[in-house]
């Protein structure tokens, strides 16, 4: 047992007796953090820092899987939630906050004419697909990226256990930046697609004309275009990726940083389509829960009032440039590179002749966590990250990246690992 993570490992054993994997989320479990060299439980956070159950402090570059945009315990959000808590959390009729937050999203997102709320990103993507099917009176869906746990999407991945074949057969994957792959789907199933849904950007920038061509192709074949902006919304820009790239979808889905860590998601889009929400069933007891709505109102107001995303992008640019320079200095470009945008960038790891990317990633995580940097290999920037936090991250990279280089070149990776290598969860793109 690791002394540094003793309490985490002991508590994990306890948690696994009552919770599968000991966590509610795959991406927070031992499937993603190698056992023996990782923490498994965080007890508190403040700003850009978190503390695990053993008392170890980390600069947080995971930020609750991008749900945190402003920082842990942002004072403006906390104050708004405290004030609402005095008045109540859920009521027998709608609360004015539902309208107030919807109006803010309509003001910020180019596609938004009407809005409905859910609690998780999966609620919103599933709702958008049901809405598109109702509007077009078609069943098939083309997907690109990750869109949540619901049957309609997860059935198209290797994690489809429990999803009926009839449901799985209605979802088809196409390749990002490859219009021909989508055109082939339309040709094979002519006049059968209700929607094309994709993350407008993930690791790779959209090629010139790709998103514009995607919209034209989708509409030409009578389908709706849905942007899954669960991550990119209120991170790439106040208006999301659709504002950055100048392509407006029919519908968009939001979550993650919408309420700075409080459980809230949204579907937004053309009023003509959204009014069908009165006919389909998309309804939750907690859909109008007021603490999350108060948090969202405070978050969106802060995004408009302060240079939140400008600051995140500037800090993130320093990270990208600094990390790329370290990769170049140590000639690691054969298996390490940088991707994404400054507000959400990635250290990309390739297989080498001797090691899989997952083996190299395991060593990377082992060494970064030991240096007090909480990461899954991406830089999920928040407004709370300071120049000192960025400097600490780059300092860790200056130590860890040469270790990775030596491990690969000298075929010494397995000797350096103090744990079993990670295994892939599933691939979505």
Task: Please tell me about this protein's structure.
It is a single chain. The protein has 429 residues and is α/β, with parallel strands linked by helices. It folds into two domains: 6-61 and 308-416, Aspartate Aminotransferase, domain 1, CATH 3.90.1150.10; 75-305, Type I PLP-dependent aspartate aminotransferase-like (Major domain) (Aspartate Aminotransferase, domain 2, 3-Layer(aba) Sandwich), CATH 3.40.640.10. The protein is 40% helix and 15% strand. The chain has 16 helices and 14 strands. The protein has helices at residues 6-15, 63-66, 75-85, 96-108, 121-136, 151-154, 165-168, 179-188, 210-220, 240-245, 271-274, 290-305, 308-329, 357-370, 387-409, 413-416, and strands spanning 42-46, 49-52, 57-60, 114-118, 140-144, 171-173, 193-198, 224-228, 251-254, 265-269, 336-341, 344-349, 373-374, 378-380. The strands form three sheets. The chain has a seven-stranded mixed beta sheet, sandwiched between helices. It has a four-stranded mixed beta sheet with strand order 1-2-3-13. A hairpin with a 2-residue loop joins strand 1 (42-46) and strand 2. The model has no long low-confidence stretch (mean pLDDT 96).
Helices and strands in order:
Blueprint: H1 6-15, E1 42-46, E2 49-52, E3 57-60, H2 63-66, H3 75-85, H4 96-108, E4 114-118, H5 121-136, E5 140-144, H6 151-154, H7 165-168, E6 171-173, H8 179-188, E7 193-198, H9 210-220, E8 224-228, H10 240-245, E9 251-254, E10 265-269, H11 271-274, H12 290-305, H13 308-329, E11 336-341, E12 344-349, H14 357-370, E13 373-374, E14 378-380, H15 387-409, H16 413-416
Parallel strand pairs: 3-13, 5-6, 5-7, 7-8, 8-9
Antiparallel strand pairs: 1-2, 2-3, 4-10, 9-10, 11-12, 12-14
Helix pairs in contact: 3-12, 4-12, 13-15, 14-15
């Amino acid at each position: 047992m690791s002394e540094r993570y003793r309490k985490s490992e002991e508590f994990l054993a306890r948690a696994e007796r009552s919770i599968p994997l000991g966590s509610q989320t795959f991406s927070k479990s031992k499937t993603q953090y190698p056992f023996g060299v990782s923490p498994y439980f965080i007890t508190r956070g403040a700003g850009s820092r978190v503390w695990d159950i053993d008392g170890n402090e980390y600069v947080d570059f995971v930020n609750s899987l991008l749900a945190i945009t402003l920082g842990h315990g942002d004072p403006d959000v906390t104050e708004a939630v405290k004030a609402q808590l005095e008045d109540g959390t859920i009521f027998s009729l709608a609360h004015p906050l539902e309208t107030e937050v919807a109006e803010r999203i309509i003001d910020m997102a180019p596609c938004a004419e009407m809005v409905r709320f859910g609690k998780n990103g999966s609620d919103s993507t599933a709702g958008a697909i049901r809405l598109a099917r109702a509007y077009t009176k078609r069943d098939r869906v083309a997907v690109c990226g990750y869109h949540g746990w619901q049957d309609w999407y997860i059935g198209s991945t290797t994690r489809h256990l429990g999803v009926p074949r009839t449901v799985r057969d209605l979802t088809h994957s196409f390749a990002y930046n490859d219009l021909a792959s989508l055109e082939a789907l339309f040709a094979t199933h002519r006049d059968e697609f209700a929607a094309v849904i994709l993350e407008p950007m993930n690791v790779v920038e959209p090629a010139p004309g790709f998103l514009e061509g995607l919209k034209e192709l989708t509409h030409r074949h009578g389908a709706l275009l849905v942007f899954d902006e669960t991550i990119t919304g209120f991170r790439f820009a106040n208006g999301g990726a659709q504002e950055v790239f100048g392509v407006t979808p029919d519908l968009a889905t939001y979550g993650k940083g919408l309420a700075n860590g409080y459980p809230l998601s949204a579907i937004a889009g053309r009023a003509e389509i959204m009014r069908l929400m009165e006919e389909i069933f998309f309804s939750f007891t907690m859909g109008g829960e007021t603490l999350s709505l108060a948090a969202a109102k405070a978050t969106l107001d802060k995004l408009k009032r302060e240079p939140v995303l400008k600051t995140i992008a500037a800090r993130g640019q320093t990270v990208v440039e600094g990390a790329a320079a370290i990769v170049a200095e140590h000639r690691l470009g054969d298996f390490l590179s940088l991707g994404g945008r400054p507000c959400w960038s990635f250290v990309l790891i390739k297989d080498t002749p001797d090691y899989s990317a997952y083996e190299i990633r395991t060593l990377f995580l082992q060494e970064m966590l030991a240096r007090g940097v909480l990461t899954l290999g991406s830089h999920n920037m928040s407004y709370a990250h300071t120049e000192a936090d960025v400097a600490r991250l780059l300092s860790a990279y200056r130590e860890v990246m040469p270790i990775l280089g030596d491990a690969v070149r000298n075929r010494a990776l397995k000797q350096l690992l103090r744990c079993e290598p990670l295994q892939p969860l599933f691939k979505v793109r």
